[in-house]
Design goal:
By secondary structure, this protein is an all-alpha fold. 64% of the residues lie in helices and 3% in strands. It is globular and about 65 Å long. The chain starts with a helix and ends with a helix. Residues 8-22 and 85-91 have low confidence and may be disordered.
């Protein structure tokens, strides 16, 4: 027994950091995390991962509509750990207000963009960005990307918006298709039209909201594919299943999300169908484990 105890203490000492990683993270106020991470990226503006973690905090506050986020706070002062597997399973504390959610959206997109600019080949950063874009489309009434549109373009889109209230289903369908093809330009115009002082037809508002959600979805589909492409080869080369499961693989998560959104959006293009087959084949390959 005297010999076993010292050996046990040595094992505990050597593997304490590993054991600590399996602890349940703490609920941390979003304001506190944002303040600390904001100071960090200000001091380290070229640290891509710092921007990513800050974007993740803003993104989780948005998607969970919460004032707290579960995080691992490091005693050494390094960046906190934000583990996806602990979000969505447990209740968060506090409910963020709509104005705060919009600020979180803009901040999340800003810092994801900066992280990707600093590390263009990171699939992880694009995966986080895509998830925020996808979820935001379900309740945010403005375009997923800020763009400038001419007065002529806005007038053209305004006419299409008017057709959304047409008594003819054929005209309504054509207007929806034309607006969908206009993409983010249509989104920018719709935001101006729907948040203006003029009173809009309820049917136009309903269809415009649905269209805005579709525009966010289109953007998310593009980003999920970009995340997949940047992680496909690396993950396919793995010889064994990750200890944290398939959900820890960027390519697996991005491929699954891409396939799901393309199928839900309907009317997949030939190129999208090919990509769906490629993504499904990639995920099927993991079944060998």
């Amino acid at each position: 027994m005297r010999r076993i105890l010292p050996a046990l203490l040595v094992v505990l000492f050597l593997f304490a950091p590993a054991f600590a990683r399996w602890k349940t993270p703490s609920d941390v106020p979003v304001e506190r995390l944002v303040a600390n991470l904001g100071a960090y990226v200000k001091e380290h503006p070229e640290d891509a991962h710092g921007h990513y973690v800050l974007a993740r905090v803003h993104g989780l506050a948005l998607t969970l509509k919460s004032t707290t986020v579960r995080a691992y706070l490091r005693r050494d002062g390094s960046l906190p750990g934000i583990d996806h597997q602990f979000h969505g399973r447990t209740k968060t504390k506090g409910t963020a207000q709509p104005a705060a959610l919009r600020k979180h959206l803009h901040a999340a997109l800003k810092h994801f963009a900066q992280a990707i600019k600093l590390d263009p080949q990171s699939g992880l950063y694009r995966l986080g960005q895509a998830y925020v874009v996808e979820v935001a489309g379900t309740f945010v009434l403005h375009a997923p990307v800020e763009v400038k549109i001419s007065a002529e373009e806005r007038a053209r889109i305004a006419k299409l918006v008017e057709l959304l209230a047409s008594k003819s289903e054929a005209q309504r369908a054509k207007a929806r298709a034309d607006l969908r093809r206009a993409g983010v330009r249509a989104g920018a115009a719709l935001e101006l039209l729907l948040t203006g002082k003029q009173k809009a037809d309820p049917e136009v508002v309903r269809q415009a909201r649905a269209l805005m959600a579709a525009l966010w979805t289109d953007e998310a589909i593009k980003i999920y594919w970009a995340a997949f492409e940047r992680s496909e080869k690396r993950d396919a080369a793995l010889e064994s299943k990750p200890i944290r499961g398939l959900s820890s693989l960027v390519s697996h998560e991005a491929a699954g999300a891409y396939v799901r959104l393309v199928k839900e959006s309907g009317g997949a293009s030939a190129a999208q169908k090919e990509r769906v087959e490629r993504a499904q084949a990639h995920c099927k390959n993991f079944r060998r484990w």
